[in-house]
Amino acid sequence: MLTKEDLMIMYCLMGRIQVNWISIIKEHLMKIRKKVEYKIPYTVLISQFIEYFEIDIEKEVVETVKA
Prior knowledge:
Elements: H1 4-14, H2 21-34, H3 42-52
C-alpha cells in the first residue's frame, strides 16, 4: 500500500525535482525498524527508481551513516 510519502517520492523522481535524498532515506530506514507496514527497504526501492528513470548520480555526494 502506497503512502502519501511514497507518492511524493515518486513525483520528485519523475519530475526530476532535487531533494535531500540522504535525509529522506534515513527517515524511512528509521520507520522500517519501528513499523511492520514498511516491508520494502527504501534504499533498495529508491535505487530501483534511480535505475529505472536513468537518473544521473555521478556528481552526488556520498555520506557514510554509522549505526
